[in-house]
Amino acid sequence: MSSVLISSVIELLSQNKKFPNYQAERRVDIFINHFLERILTEYLKTPTTYVCPEFPLKTANLTQSGKSRNLSTKLDYLCGTLNEIIYVELKTDDKSIKPEQLEIYFNNINWSKCLENFDSLVNGPKRNKDYQNKYNVLSERITSLRGNSYLDQARIIYISPLSKDQRLNIGKYKVINPTPLHEINLKLSEDEIVVWKFLIEIGINIFELKE
């Protein structure tokens, strides 16, 4: 992709983001995804690997009538270091950070249990059979994350703008080490610099959340 085309795409993103119903996260996602391993490696100070997008996390076990069900929300990015599982969520607006969504993530930080839930979601009788080949690809991708000596709890990382009111906590969750993107030092190509500047301009931070 040429520098002229990248610059044009970024300018279009910048203008469209000013409109009220434009879903910028869906467009910015691919750029963050491109930089993700390098961002996390620099932020966490340890080599970090991107595993997959849209990893399903179970949201509930029972209906009001007491019957079991398989419902899930999708984590933006599943990543990992040598000894930790990393959950990463992308937001392009600080108003999009919802404590109720965080509740789901913190209810799924036990990785062993998360894998059990994943297997029931993928292999259960109510799975979407039309997507079985894609689920097979996903299962293969996380094979390397099974059986390793990971810490019991996953870490939850957000890549998002932060308002002044959110810099210490979001709901009952503590914001840990908020770092503006311009403080993350990466070696960038000429084309990447254009995108990186755009991500800085929209106020992206990276931070961890803890209970």
In short:
With about 210 residues, this protein is an alpha+beta fold. It has one domain.
Q: What do these coordinates show?
A:
With 211 residues, the protein is of the alpha+beta class. The protein has one domain. Helix content is 37%, strand content 26%. The chain is built from six helices and seven strands. A seven-stranded mixed β-sheet has the order 1-2-3-4-7-6-5, sandwiched between helices. Strand 5 and strand 6 form a beta hairpin. Helix 1 packs parallel to helix 6. The termini are far apart.
Instruction: Give the total of beta strands.
Output: 7
The side-by-side strand order for the widest beta sheet comes to 1-2-3-4-7-6-5
The end-to-end distance, rounded to whole angstroms, is 42 Å
Structural class: alpha+beta
Tally of alpha and pi helices: 6
C-alpha-based Rg, rounded: 18 Å
Low-confidence stretches: 62-68
* Biggest pleated-sheet summary: 7 strands, mixed
SSE sequence, one letter per element: HHEEEHHHEEEHE
Mean pLDDT: 86
* Tertiary shape: globular
How much of the residues is beta strand, in percent?
Answer: 25-35%
